[in-house]
Amino acid sequence: MAEPPYKLERLGVVMEPLDGDAREAEGVLNPASARGPDEELYLFPRMVGKGNFSRIGRARVLFDKQGKPFGVERLGVVLEPDEAWERNPVAAGVEDPRITFVAGLSAYVMTYTAYGPLGPRIALAVSGDLITWRRLGPVSFAYEPALKTDMNLYPNKDAMLFPEPVPGPDGSPAYAMLHRPMWNLSPNSSAVGLPLPAGVTDPRQSIWVSYVVADSVSADIRTLTRLGHHRQVAGPQQPWEATKIGAGTPPIRVPEGWLIIHHGVTKGQAPPGGRVPVRYVAGAMVLDPQDVGRVLSRSLVPLLEPETKEESKGMVDNVVFPTAIDVRENGEADVFYGMADFRIGAARLRRIN
Fold this sequence. Notes:
With 353 residues, the chain is mainly beta. It has helices spanning 214-219, 309-312; strands spanning 6-15, 28-35, 41-49, 53-63, 69-79, 94-102, 107-116, 119-127, 134-138, 140-141, 156-161, 166-167, 173-181, 207-213, 226-234, 244-246, 252-254, 257-267, 278-288, 291-298, 320-327, 333-339, 343-351.
């Protein structure tokens, strides 16, 4: 399988915690992004307060004369963990958003992780202006007899929508969501999250896709929260993906197909009484426009690895976690990513040939 013809070049830190702001005491990270009706670029960072209490903020991206993002203007908070399904007795969180503008619905759609009583679950919110957001609620997965399990039994994260209808399982137009069910939550146990769905033999977390008929969404946007026809898209392959993979940036259309920047994870040995060390890196994957559950090409080596001080030391060391992408001219795009779970960096995506 050929590699996607792209590379990432660091642009630097774009956002870091504001001194004295308790809402950012434990980091600003893993943002969504979107161009507003005013054509300005906005980031929607996960803002982490003390005790892992997460909100979703809004900030306007600042650019220098060369078009390089270098900072932000903070514009407040757009989502708090106000709903019962976004809170639990230990913590609360609306986390790791991704935003897609869906032209056919004239709406920005945000997927995010709600850290509620049952652990992490996917939820949706919509907006017409990027300022006011309306929750559609948590996502539910229709029962598929062939899988011999209920997908709602598993925690789930890292969800994002395609910006337009794609061919569904029966060929008719459908909206599709990439997501990552979590079969195995404990590094010390092979039993948590099992048994696996029928046909799945590898317990490592991987990228899946689910669909909803486009006409039903056009009639009632709330049906975006009710997905069916679940299918595995890609699992770990390379050594830098040995522990798990997950989708990162929302899909963008490129000549080869649908491009996503995904993350791959490896784990090391925990020191006595310490945390298991992890390493998150970023790669690229191209999906077939006629069947988005089919991978056409993917990175054999990472496009971005934790190398700088900001990527190597933070709340979780050695993490680059891509979550947002802004398409530019000349086939380029800016990718925004979490740096060691504490800051936000940017990298320029360019074609190699």
